[in-house]
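Budget justification aside, the reviewers requested a transparent look at the raw inputs and outputs of the sequence design task funded under Objective 1. We therefore reproduce one unedited record. The lines immediately below are the structure tokens for a 209-residue chain.
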């Protein structure tokens, strides 16, 4: 099932090219994985509003087409709230592909924030294959102040089955920080004769303000 409030927001994001004005944030780290695709171009980093952090996310995915040109993962949106979860900071996204549908968001447990991620990517198949690049993403949630050892995995529905998860998760945001920003690498639409892949890679910023 699609959550229509999330879909409506992200239609607006796409209508302005996935661009939102970013507030100044105090970034203490940038986290990434090593298996990201390379077909796309990096879009601008987009941040949660000041004093809010990622506590949930949703993904935009084109499911398997059969005989068509598959693109799999097309977009990721972060859902932002204050650390205690009482004040919403809305949602933010970087570049977004044109294919697929948004799926229901998933949220960290109360009192936790997103601080680490893994990405599932299909490596290039060569001239005879249908490349999809990024297929799925998942996160880990933990306390903002300390890494308690009680981290929980967060895996939203909708991801597709091609490719492999990175051999290692990203580094975790340092203690007293959490994911606050997103930057995506998205391949522009290639037209009817091209092999589209849409979202290829992603980086996340960690903030402590």
């Amino acid at each position: 099932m699609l959550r229509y409030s999330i879909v409506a927001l992200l239609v607006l994001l796409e209508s302005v090219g996935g661009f939102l004005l970013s507030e100044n944030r105090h970034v203490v780290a940038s986290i990434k994985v090593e298996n990201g695709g390379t077909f796309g171009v990096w879009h601008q980093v987009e941040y949660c509003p000041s004093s809010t952090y990622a506590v949930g996310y949703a993904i935009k995915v084109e499911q398997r087409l059969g005989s068509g040109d598959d693109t799999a993962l097309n977009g990721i949106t972060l859902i932002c709230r204050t650390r205690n979860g009482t004040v919403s900071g809305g949602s933010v996204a970087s570049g977004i592909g044109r294919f697929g549908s948004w799926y229901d968001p998933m949220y960290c447990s109360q009192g936790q924030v997103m601080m680490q991620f893994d990405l599932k990517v299909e490596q290039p198949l060569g001239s005879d294959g249908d490349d999809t690049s990024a297929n799925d993403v998942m996160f880990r949630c933990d306390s903002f102040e300390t890494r308690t050892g009680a981290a929980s995995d967060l895996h939203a529905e909708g991801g597709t089955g091609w490719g492999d998860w990175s051999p290692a998760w990203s580094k975790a945001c340092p203690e007293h920080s959490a994911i606050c920003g997103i930057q995506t690498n998205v391949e522009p639409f290639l037209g009817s004769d091209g092999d589209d892949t849409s979202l290829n890679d992603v980086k996340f910023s960690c903030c402590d303000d």
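Confidence is low (pLDDT under 50) at residues 1-22. The first helix runs from residue 4 to 15. Computational costs for records of this kind are itemized in the attached budget.
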